[in-house]
Amino acid sequence: MKEYLLSEQFALISLDGMDVLHDTAAKKVALSGIAMADAIQKMISDKDISDISSFGEKLAGEIDRIKSMSKKEGAELERKMVSILKAREVLTEIPNILGCDMNYYTANVTMREYRSDPAEYQGIVENIRAEILEPGEVSLETVCLLYLCRETGCMHDIFSVEEQEQIQRRMMELMGREPLYKVLLETEFHSGIRNAYLGFLRAKTNLFKNPYLEGVNLLFPFLDRKQAIFIDMIIAGTTVEERRKKTIEFLRKNGHVCEEVPIGSESFVKVDNKYYRIWPSTRSNKIPIQGIELLPVYM
Amino acid sequence: MSRQRTMEKIMQSEYVSIGELVRITNCRYSTLKFYTEEGLLEFEQEEEKLTRRFPRERAVSRINEIMKLKKEGRNISEIKNILSSL
């Protein structure tokens, strides 16, 4: 794994799966997180961060600055960070998975999204997971990344519901042990509306632990980075393996990195850095169209 | 309060944490945890709630051996038998 600054690590996590061309709500949140990561990076690079009250004041000042960040400043930050990561060959632009949905695909709609290098993305995420879920010391950088993920709603993308509960307990424990962590974790920089949106995503993740409810995601594709899509194909007389193979072939043809990942008794499909389940389905138009739903997996 | 070590420092040290082992080998945390629980990776731990310390060189070469055997199609119990007979 390469060496990254805090802001670069967080950008690789938060920009993954984000729309390149449009200014979405999720991208705005990610950019404010990147700006915050940049500010925290500078603050923790100071030799002396033992003055907790001064750290808290600086943090509050940075939050005020980031909250009032203009659209232009956000776009400039995105351009700067994307060019750094592209130069390091760890961020690419690929066609958006929504473009593989039957309605978009047949209408020739082009959408693009960012994809973080899968190995680097996995390295960063697994390092966070290893530090926070293992007994013993947790580094300041990991606590900062968890804080940024919490504030920008990336937690449900990375951690399972059980892991999120463990992390919450661990963070409480760390806050009790380390005053700096307490100041950091008690400072919130998301807005009320964003808070409601994050609450909705959390509730959705909990709800979709039941695989039969995952299709509801079709109603809210714009709220999440994982998007449920429908790919038309002949289902009658095919086996699960044939459908999986055909789906992977189709997605690869459209520029996505796909692999089959067996987890327990089920096989999921990893598309770019997200996990999906293949579900045979039919769309009812004038005539019923057979196909598969590619449903995001919430573990 | 600890700080994340640079790759250069990790590569110079005798012992590493499981998070650092993830960074060096690009393996998943759950994979390394599983190997540890199966007794395939040795570690030192002063107390139950303290960080597990893995001897870097031995752990990395052991992980590479396991990966190689997995690519050959061996399952975990076969890998355990092979590695314990070495």
Plain-language structure description:
The complex is a heterodimer of chains A (299) and B (86). Chain A is an alpha+beta fold and 299 residues long. Chain A has 2 domains: 6-96 and 111-196, no CATH class; 210-296, no CATH class. Chain A is built from 12 helices and 7 strands. In chain A, strands 3-7-6-5-4 form a 5-stranded antiparallel β-sheet, covered by helices on one side. In chain A, helix 2 (25-45) packs antiparallel against helix 7 (140-152). Chain A is globular, with a radius of gyration of 20 Å. Chain B is mainly alpha-helical. Chain B has one domain: Multidrug-efflux Transporter Regulator, Chain: A, Domain 2 (Orthogonal Bundle), CATH 1.10.1660. Helix content of chain B is 57%, strand content 5%. Chain B is globular, with a radius of gyration of 13 Å. The model of chain B has no long low-confidence stretch (mean pLDDT 89). Classes of the chains: A alpha+beta (299), B mainly alpha (86).
Core attributes:
heterodimer; A: 299 residues; alpha+beta; five-stranded antiparallel sheet; two-stranded antiparallel ribbon; 12 helices; 15% strand; B: 86 residues; mainly alpha; Multidrug-efflux Transporter Regulator, Chain: A, Domain 2; globular
- What oligomeric state is this? heterodimer
How much helix, percentage-wise, in residues of chain A?
A: 40-55%
Overall shape of chain B: it is globular
Radius of gyration of chain B equals: 13 Å
Low-confidence regions of chain A? 211-223
Chart the SSEs and their pairings.
The complex is a heterodimer of chains A (299) and B (86).
Chain A: H1 6-14, H2 25-45, H3 52-67, H4 71-87, E1 91-95, H5 102-106, E2 112-116, H6 118-133, H7 140-152, H8 155-158, H9 161-177, H10 179-186, H11 192-207, E3 229-232, H12 240-253, E4 258-263, E5 266-271, E6 274-284, E7 288-296
Antiparallel strand pairs in A: 1-2, 3-7, 4-5, 5-6, 6-7
Helix pairs in contact in A: 1-2, 1-7, 2-3, 2-7, 3-10, 6-7, 9-10
Chain B: H1 7-12, E1 15-16, H2 18-25, H3 29-37, E2 54-55, H4 56-71, H5 76-85
Antiparallel strand pairs in B: 1-2
